[in-house]
Every structure is written in structure tokens, then in C-alpha cells.
């Protein structure tokens, strides 16, 4: 397990166990079905094609299965791919387990938990503090295990909590520069903005969208949750509506999935912080795959741009 799949150079041969992150069926130009496999270990993921598949292969090589592969690292249209020579499912005798292949947040769960707890403790407004604490406690286990998305940013185990911790640190720095911002509101918005994803996504491994996720989405789910929490805690007042607005507007624009644009100063800042942290995570991921002096593959979520890594970057 020592050398990660992303550490191999083009032209090298690979023989190792990998986890199928997802498998998509396609039909080749000769009319025969094939599978596009995204295979991963803790270093990241790589694409591979499995040609001429049978119905049985589709079941054997599906998401969350561990496989033993042998193949070559190739460059295909500017992207690194794995050309498979052999593939077989891992058996009970193979010395591998799911946790060996999962990319996880760079911070331990306990450390993230204590950081977020401290931010809630620092809140001065009792209504905002109580609602935030109540909802975090309610969804605590899933919150500290789930990814922040199925693709693009923080799509790793505990990615959601890591995204929130990074955003809280950003919020704190921004509040020290702009003291007119309401710290409590911004911190609460950061903690709650994506908490609905524990219902929207299926789980920490090979996350996909649930029925609730597809039909309602994490924004609507969370607006309901804030309303329910306020009712359970006997809290009424403007804070409840403002917190709901923070969640409703954090995507910024209707075409990006926001039912409302930000109409409160802290809501505007929340949108920028969310975007900044997601973009930074995506940039670091694509740039980690290339050497100085090279361009990355095109990043669809970054306006399909290809980024250059300067020679003096280590």
C-alpha cells in the first residue's frame, strides 16, 4: 500500500489493490458494452476502461468493491489513465480492508470536533448558539464522516467537517479585518450551510444522492431543520429567519442553486468563503497531480481551465 496510484509515472507498470469509487456503463463504437471505472486509494483516483463486459461483470465491478489490478499508466488526451491488463475482485483471503483505500481529511475527527465546539462556545447570541449546537449534536456522527460533495471538492471521508473547519478559520480572519460583521451569524452560517448534506448524500464512501437529496436538496432540507430546531427549543424571533436565509442564499445565484440571493451582509460573505474554500481545495487537488512546469488537466468545475504549476513551486 506504500506507493499511491497517483505516484506512478506514465509508462510504469502497476500491480496493486484499488477500490472502485464508481463504475459507469457505456457502449463502445463496436456496439459492445464497457465500464468506465474510477479506481482509488488514499492518494487519489484514476480512470480505467474495462472492455467487452458481461452482465456479471457489472455486478462484480461496482462501486465500493475492492479489486486487484495489473496494468500500465498511460497518457490519454492529456489525462493520466490506467490501461488494465488484468483485474479480479479481492477475496476474503486478501489482506485488504475498505479503510485502506479511503482518502480522509488531513485533520483527525477529534481535533475538528473540538475546533467547531470552540467556535459555538464563542457565540454570544443565545438563540443562534442554541440552534447551532442543537443541530450539530443531532447530526454529529454523520457530519464528521460525510464528504462535502460527490465530486469536485472535499469528496473524501470527513470532507464536510474539514470544509467547515477551514471556513470557520477563514470567517474568523475576515471578522478581525471587518469588525462590523456579526461573528455569531457568520459562524452559525458556516456550520449549518451544508449540514443538510447528511440527508442529501448516501454516506461517507462512494457518495451518491439520496431520493431526498435529488427531490429536495441540502438547502431546503436544512431550512426545514432550522425551523424544527427553533420550534423544539421554543425559540422565535428574527434570528431564525436570518439563519434560514444564510442557508438559502449561500450558493449566491439562482443558476447555482440558491433559492434566494444573499440579502444580508453576512450571507454575502458566507457565499464568498464557501466558494473560496471549495475552489482552493479543487486547485490543490488538480495541481498535486502535476510537476512544476506542467499544466493540469482541464478542471470542469473551475470553468474548464487548465492551470499551470510554476517551475519555482515545490
From TrEMBL:
EC number: 3.1.-.-
CDD domains: HDc, YhaM_OBF_like
Keyword tags: Exonuclease, Hydrolase, Nuclease
HD domain segment(s): 163-279
One family name in Pfam for this protein: tRNA_anti-codon
PROSITE patterns to which the protein is assigned, alphabetical: HD (PS51831)
EC class: hydrolase
Any one Gene Ontology molecular-function term assigned to this protein's record: nucleic acid binding
InterPro entries hit by this protein: 3'-5'_exoribonuclease_YhaM, HD/PDEase_dom, HD_domain, NA-bd_OB-fold, NA-bd_OB_tRNA, YhaM_exoribonuc/phosphodiest
Record-level GO BP terms: rRNA 3'-end processing
Function: Shows a 3'-5' exoribonuclease activity.
Similarity remark: Belongs to the YhaM family.
Protein name: 3'-5' exoribonuclease YhaM
Species of provenance: Mesobacillus foraminis
Lineage: Bacteria, Bacillati, Bacillota, Bacilli, Bacillales
Gene for this chain: yhaM
Amino acid at each position: 500500500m506504500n506507493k499511491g496510484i497517483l505516484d506512478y509515472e506514465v509508462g510504469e507498470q502497476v500491480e496493486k489493490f484499488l477500490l472502485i469509487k464508481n463504475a459507469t456503463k457505456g457502449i463502445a463504437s463496436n456496439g459492445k458494452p464497457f465500464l468506465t471505472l474510477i479506481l482509488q486509494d488514499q492518494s487519489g483516483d484514476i480512470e480505467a476502461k474495462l472492455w467487452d463486459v458481461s452482465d456479471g461483470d457489472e455486478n462484480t465491478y461496482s462501486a465500493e468493491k475492492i479489486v486487484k489490478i495489473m496494468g500500465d499508466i498511460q497518457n490519454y488526451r492529456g489525462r493520466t489513465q490506467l490501461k488494465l491488463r488484468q483485474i479480479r475482485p479481492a477475496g476474503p483471503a486478501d489482506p485488504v480492508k475498505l479503510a485502506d483505500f479511503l482518502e480522509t481529511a488531513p485533520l483527525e475527527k477529534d481535533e475538528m470536533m473540538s475546533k467547531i465546539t470552540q467556535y459555538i462556545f464563542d457565540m454570544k447570541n443565545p438563540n443562534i448558539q442554541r440552534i447551532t449546537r442543537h443541530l450539530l449534536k443531532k447530526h454529529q456522527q454523520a457530519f464528521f464522516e460525510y464528504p462535502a460533495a460527490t465530486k469536485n471538492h472535499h469528496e473524501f471521508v470527513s470532507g464536510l467537517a474539514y470544509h467547515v473547519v477551514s471556513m470557520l478559520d477563514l470567517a474568523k480572519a475576515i471578522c478581525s479585518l471587518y469588525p462590523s460583521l456579526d461573528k455569531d451569524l457568520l459562524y452559525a452560517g458556516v456550520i449549518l450551510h451544508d449540514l443538510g448534506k447528511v440527508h442529501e448524500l448516501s454516506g461517507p464512501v462512494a457518495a451518491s444522492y439520496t431520493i431526498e437529496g435529488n427531490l429536495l436538496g441540502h438547502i431546503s432540507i436544512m431550512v426545514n431543520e432550522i425551523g424544527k430546531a427553533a420550534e423544539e427549543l421554543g425559540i422565535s424571533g428574527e434570528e431564525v429567519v436570518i439563519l434560514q436565509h444564510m442557508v438559502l442564499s449561500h450558493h449566491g445565484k439562482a443558476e447555482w442553486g440558491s433559492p434566494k440571493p444573499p440579502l444580508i451582509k453576512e450571507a454575502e460573505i458566507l457565499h464568498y468563503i464557501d466558494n473560496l474554500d471549495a475552489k482552493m481545495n479543487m486547485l490543490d487537488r488538480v495541481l498535486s497531480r502535476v510537476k512544476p512546469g506542467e499544466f493540469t488537466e482541464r478542471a470542469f468545475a473551475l470553468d474548464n481551465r487548465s492551470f499551470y504549476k510554476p517551475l519555482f513551486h515545490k
